[in-house]
Amino acid sequence: MSDDVKKRLLQVLEQNHKITSKTLATMLEITDTEVKEIIKELEEAKVILGYVTLIDWEKVNNNDDNVTAIIDVKVTPQRDVGFDTIAERICRFPEVKGVYLMSGGYDLSVVIEGTSMKKVAFFVADRLATLENVQSTATHFVLKKYKQDGIIFGEDKKDRRLVVSP
Question: Tens digit of pLDDT for each residue in 119-150?
Fold first, then answer.
C-alpha cells in the first residue's frame, strides 16, 4: 500500500480513533480488508502506539481531585546517551503523563498529574529533583485547559460567524 494512503489513514485516525474500517475504506478508496491490514501493520511497527479518549475532567466532580503541572527540568547529559537515560527514568513514574526534550533554558519538559498541588510539589521535591543529573526544576501549574490534542475544551457548537446583511 502506498505511503500516501497510510499517511491519510493515520491523519483520520488521529482525529477519530472510533471511525469504522468501512468508513475509512470508503474515504481512502480501498477495501475494508486493506484498511484492517494497514492498521495491523502500523500497530505491529509501533507507528500506532495506542488509542486515547480525551476527557474534560473539569466536568467530572468539578475537577476537585486533579491537578496538572508542567515541570521544566535542567539536566546534566550523560556521556554516550545524552538525555535519554534520565528521560526514560522520569517516564516510569506513574504521575508522569509526558516527557519532552526541549530547546531553550531547560532540557526536559515533564507533564504530570496529581490529586493536589501539595502532592505535585512533593513529587517534584522528593522524587524528581533528587534524581542524579537533575540540576534544577521550575514547576508551572495548569490553571485551565483550553485546547489539547486539537480538541477545544468547553466549545459550544454555536455558529460564531458574523452576520452579514445587505
Answer: 999 999 999 999 999 999 999 999 988 988 88
What is the CATH code of the structural domain delimited by 3-44?
1.10.10
* Spatial distance between the Cα atoms of 154 and 68, rounded to a whole number of angstroms: 18
C-alpha distance from residue 138 to each of 73, 74, 76, 105, 109 (Å): 7, 9, 16, 11, 10
pLDDT, tens only, 85-120 = 999 999 999 999 999 999 999 999 999 998 899 999
Q: Where are the alpha helices (DSSP H) in the chain?
A: 3-15, 21-28, 32-44, 84-91, 117-122
The cell for 44 is 505491529
Residue 141 and residue 115: Cα distance in Å, rounded?
Answer: 12
Domains of the chain, residue spans = 3-44, 59-146
| pLDDT tens-digit readout, 68-91 | 999 999 999 988 888 999 999 999
Give the Cα-Cα-Cα angle 2, 4, 9 (nearest 5 degrees).
Answer: 100
The yes/no answer on whether domain 59-146 falls in CATH 3.30.70.920 is: yes
Cα-Cα-Cα-Cα torsion 138, 109, 79, 123, nearest 10 degrees, comes to 60
